[in-house]
Specification:
With 834 residues, this protein is of the alpha+beta class. It is built from 27 helices and 21 strands. The strands form five sheets. Strands 3, 4, 5, 17, 18, 19, 20 and 21 form an eight-stranded mixed sheet that branches. The protein has a four-stranded parallel sheet with strand order 7-6-11-12. Strands 13-16-14-15 form a four-stranded antiparallel sheet, covered by helices on one side. A hairpin with an 8-residue loop joins strand 1 and strand 2. This is Circularly permuted type 2 ATP-grasp protein.
């Protein structure tokens, strides 16, 4: 019996031998054969050495890497994402044990394919009495209109996830199947990536098999049935509010798939296209991450707002490879688990290598009586995954844990609609060592394993998976709960693999040399454009607040020292909706505090920062981890109305926003994505310059008030030093305005912004073949022409107001031309479809 004394902390070699565990629980380490136990000890010793080298707990080392990679998730009910909870100690499974699991997974994937092919094909299993008709028709995921339609590639399934539990005696059993959304496959990749980067060569030292070959095979398997040599494969996401959106974005980036939403796509002449800035581009295959019911509002649920009209028609006619086929998730229903063991004998003539947990579907009288009689020995769950009376939505309930009233209510509901319920055996889980607070403690675990079709159409198994370490031992769900951890699953060989698939990775392949950033979807261009505008808008607003609080280079030139100038800048904040009219007329510190931190005001800095984060989430597959580290910082604390405190916050925000701008400027390849990013920045800055010049440099000012206002304008534009180097005099209206409006060499001038915007638009692809400039370019050139053909003496207030209106119109023409303004037209246009 292992000692139950408190184990030592990490620094002294992390004594895995001393960690407490109940020997009856089938612990992965305690019951490992000697050669495998040596791998566990080597991993623990390596983590201890890492802790010594870093000087901080190894959990912090891994957490830093997770932050660097931008790994996060959202629990049900959360508004904000949480850092991904990864345990530094992986699950280690020996190659011999995994070989049996692998065989069972391939067997199960083949069985599921056969059952789905029959349900949506000849339906012999129902007609011959092997499956109750109510079991199929009763599922909310049964897609009736797909019956009789066969996928182009001949397969209904391309990717399968299987939830596994390991019992106290080491036996592996199936908890459930995931055919609709294979959540966790991206997190398995992220776990391995984070652990590899934070532990150096430690995984290689324990001979862990690599995952990259599996993902290469998955990608090739999806492309296998496409008719083009270099098919375009996209990942269809429900959008950034989906709980697994971070996983989807990371997976799409790793596989090189465009990440698209339903509104990015359109059907033209029996093909699916993605709306891009260069017109529609054909999609050959689609990996869907949305429910069948939401996939096509014309074929399934008309209320869907995230699907693509006519998408199913394209699939049915053979114009698109879809992974997985609509309606495949019908087999996810827990009720099917009661029939799959027998179907394995009927369809394949063999018993399951990985048996289901014992399941009784109450749609059969005998099974319903068994469940009611043995309720205390079972877990009761919804037969088809829908909300039912007597059970909390989406959960399973142990019968023994029900109160008298709850028990009566459940039995009453079961008698009224028995087909809605299943009884399942209570599963006892193996444990694994988890590193928590620098101690090794046993945690019950479940594993989600993944199977995919390779380039030859045969099933291949990921050598590992995604493990959930339960905080309370619950097995009812694979969703991450409060206090749960994830862990990498490492399949290890007793000797290092020397050849073949075990060591090959996607990085070993030499890709064809290419340049550019691939296609740019219209929605992505829209998000890039507005993301840059929000960053620039926030910086301009903070600069105005900072000027109000008195942050000029010289005290006697500070706009903040003149009440009239303060009033003008307060009016500018009110015009930008950073404060309301009442606040504009009130005490300055209170107004500045609201302009910084009142998220209810649409133009306040806090609200704009929220827009930056929200828009940035849609660009997760394009932005670096450095960006996420800066953008994810909370609003600086403002615990008083004192000007010095608010000024400190303003300084910090200017530095933060400048860092974001710098990252955006330096980290993008100068392709279409970059053009839209900088285009948004230039348009927003140009509008801001016009507004600031109109408010602060009007012709009606005179004396000290005008000098202070012009000094504040130079501060806001970060041009004080440039002005003083050019003019050995205090701020004067015409020289200041020439520097800020018409000087094409000043990167803070209006002319510079307009010229840069015209250059970006000219670099974007054209929809026509006549080489004539399109409307946005004509609009930008018109503004540039006005600025180039006037001197500052002629550039009066009326012309400034006119330019401001032209800039607003330019933004509208850019949106109309590039951002999801594509209309479905028969035949499209010459040269548009590729």
């Amino acid at each position: 019996m292992a000692s139950t004394a408190a184990p030592p902390t990490m620094p002294a070699a992390a004594r895995l031998q001393d960690y407490p565990v109940d020997v009856t629980a089938g612990d992965l380490f305690r019951h490992a054969p000697p050669d495998l136990a040596a791998r566990w000890l080597a991993m623990a010793d390596g983590l201890a050495a890492l802790r010594e080298e870093a000087g901080v707990p190894v959990q912090e080392v891994v957490a830093r890497q997770i932050q660097e990679l931008g790994l996060s998730f959202r629990m049900a009910g959360d508004d904000d994402e949480r850092p991904w909870p990864l345990s530094p100690m992986p699950l280690i499974v020996g190659a011999q044990e995994w070989a049996t699991v692998e065989q069972g997974l391939v067997q199960r994937a083949r069985l599921l394919e056969r059952v789905i092919a029959d349900i949506y094909g000849p339906q012999r299993l129902v007609s011959e009495g092997h499956l109750p008709a109510a079991l199929v028709a009763g599922s909310r995921y049964f897609a009736r209109n797909t019956v009789g339609v066969r996928p182009r590639g001949g397969h209904y399934l391309n990717v399968v996830a299987v939830d596994l539990a390991r019992g106290p005696r080491g036996q592996w059993r199936v908890l459930g199947d995931r055919l609709r959304l294979v959540n966790g496959i991206g997190y398995a990749l992220e776990n391995r990536l984070a652990l590899s980067r934070s532990t150096g060569n430690l995984l290689g030292d324990v001979h862990a098999r690599r995952l990259a070959r599996f993902f290469a095979d998955l990608r090739s398997g999806i492309a296998r049935s496409c008719t083009r040599e270099n098919p375009r494969i996209a990942l269809l996401t429900p959008g950034r509010l989906n709980q697994s959106y971070p996983e989807q974005a990371h997976l799409a980036r790793y596989l090189g798939f465009p990440l698209v939403e339903g509104r990015d796509c359109a059907v033209i002449d029996g093909r699916l296209y993605i709306r891009t800035i260069a017109g529609p581009k054909r999609i050959d295959a689609l990996w869907r991450w949305i429910d069948t019911n939401a996939l096509d509002p014309l074929a399934f649920d008309a209320r869907s707002e995230i699907g693509v009209p006519d998408l199913y028609e394209v699939c049915a006619s053979g114009g698109l490879e879809l992974c997985n086929w609509p309606g495949a998730e019908v087999l996810e229903a827990p009720a099917f688990a009661a029939f799959l063991p027998r179907l394995s004998q009927i369809l394949a003539g063999e018993a399951p290598i990985l048996p289901n947990i014992a399941t009784w579907w109450c749609g059969q009288a005998r099974e319903a009586d068994i469940v009611k009689a043995r309720l205390d020995e079972m877990v009761v769950t919804s037969a088809f995954g829908a909300a039912v009376d007597g059970l909390p939505p989406g959960t399973s309930v142990p019968g023994a844990g029900l109160s008298g009233a709850q028990r009566e209510a459940l039995i009453d509901a079961l008698q009224r609609r028995p087909m809605d319920y299943c009884g399942q055996e209570i599963v006892q889980l193996s444990t694994t060592p988890a590193l928590i607070d620098e101690r090794f403690v046993p945690r019950a675990f479940t594993v989600r394993a993944f199977v995919a079709r390779g380039p030859d159409g045969e099933w291949t198994v990921m050598p590992g998976g995604f493990a959930r370490l339960s905080a309370d031992g619950a097995v009812q769900t694979m969703l991450m709960g409060e206090g749960d951890l994830s862990a990498d699953v490492c399949v290890v060989d007793t000797t290092p693999a020397r050849t073949g698939r075990a060591v090959a990775t996607m990085l070993d392949q030499t890709p064809k040399v290419r340049r550019g950033g691939g296609i740019l979807a219209s929605q992505a261009a829209d998000n890039l454009f507005w993301f840059a505008r929000y960053v620039e808008r926030a910086e301009l607003t903070v600069r105005v607040i900072r000027a109000i609080l008195g942050s000029s280079i010289e005290v006697d030139a500070a706009g903040g020292s003149n009440p009239e100038v303060i009033a003008r800048m307060m009016a500018l904040l009110a015009e930008w909706h950073a404060i309301d009219e009442r606040q504009a007329a009130g005490p300055v510190p209170e107004a500045c505090r609201a302009a910084l931190g009142d998220a209810e005001l649409p133009g306040a800095v806090a609200a704009i920062l929220a827009q930056i984060r929200a828009t940035g989430l849609t660009l997760r597959d394009r932005l670096t981890s450095d960006f996420w580290r800066i953008a994810g910082r909370p609003m600086p604390a403002m615990n008083s109305h004192r000007p010095a405190t608010l000024l400190r916050v303003a300084h910090e925000l200017v530095e933060r926003l400048a860092a974001l701008s710098g990252l955006l400027a330096e980290n993008f390849v100068r392709g279409p994505a970059w053009h839209f990013l900088d285009l948004g920045r230039r348009v927003e800055r140009a509008q801001g310059i016009c507004a600031m010049a109109r408010v602060l440099a009007g012709p009606d000012g005179e004396g000290d008030e005008q000098a202070d206002a012009l000094g504040a304008l130079l501060d806001l534009s970060d041009c004080q030093i440039t002005y003083r180097a050019r003019y050995l005099a205090g701020p004067r209206r015409l020289p200041v305005l020439d520097l800020l409006l018409l000087d094409p060499d000043n990167p803070r001038s209006l002319a510079y912004q307009v010229n840069a915007a015209a250059g970006h638009i000219a670099s974007l692809p054209s929809l026509t073949e006549d080489m004539l400039p399109e409307v946005p370019l004509l609009a930008a050139r018109a503004i540039a022409g006005t600025l180039q053909s006037n001197t500052i003496e002629l550039f009066g207030t009326d012309l400034l107001v006119q330019t401001e209106a032209q800039l607003l119109a330019l933004s509208d023409t850019i949106s109309a031309r590039y951002f999801l303004q594509f209309e479905k037209t028969a035949g499209g246009g010459a040269g548009l479809l590729a």
